[in-house]
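Aggregate trends can hide what the representation actually does to any particular protein. This step matters because it turns folding into a mapping between discrete strings. For completeness, the protein is quoted in full, as a sequence line and a line of structure tokens:
=====
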Amino acid sequence: AGTPADQVGPDQVRRAWTSIVAAVRALHDVPTAGCPFDRGLRPMYALAQDVVARGAVRREFLRPEQESRKVDDLLAELAAELPVRQEQEAADQVVCHGDLCLPNILLDPETLEVSGFVDLGRLSASPTGTPTSRCCWRARRTPGRTRPSTSRTSSSPSTALRWTRTGSGSTSSWTL
């Protein structure tokens, strides 16, 4: 239970930022080994190829400097970068929320501590930096918000969390 972080005032988001960063870091500290959800470069590139082939690119999801470009050109640039990016990905992975933005972070309205995350359908092991940079970008684009700083925070690794599978086949689920 909690209040989505985009539903509190800008001053409250700034006060909650240390808690938000600590919660995201705790999620990142979950061991990636055994993570059953793969949203790495290989499956995401295949998805991008499919979306481009079907003509289903939603330009509003592109960065502003990409919106007027041909999607085939963008895909070709991505293909050229893929080998280097895959090396980087293999060396530096964390468990990521997948859609980390203020509406998906729940805050205790009294303490402004993170009480949870919602919209975890894209949770996966992914390259470091993706989720935090996206959240900061979204915080900047939310009316009335300013980008909070992440420079004064620290966290300790959470070694108690492990991936656990319950059930089997179509009834199985994964929990931390």
Observations:
- The mean pLDDT is 75.
- Residues 14 and 148 are 6 Å apart (CA to CA).
- DSSP finds four helices and seven strands in the chain.
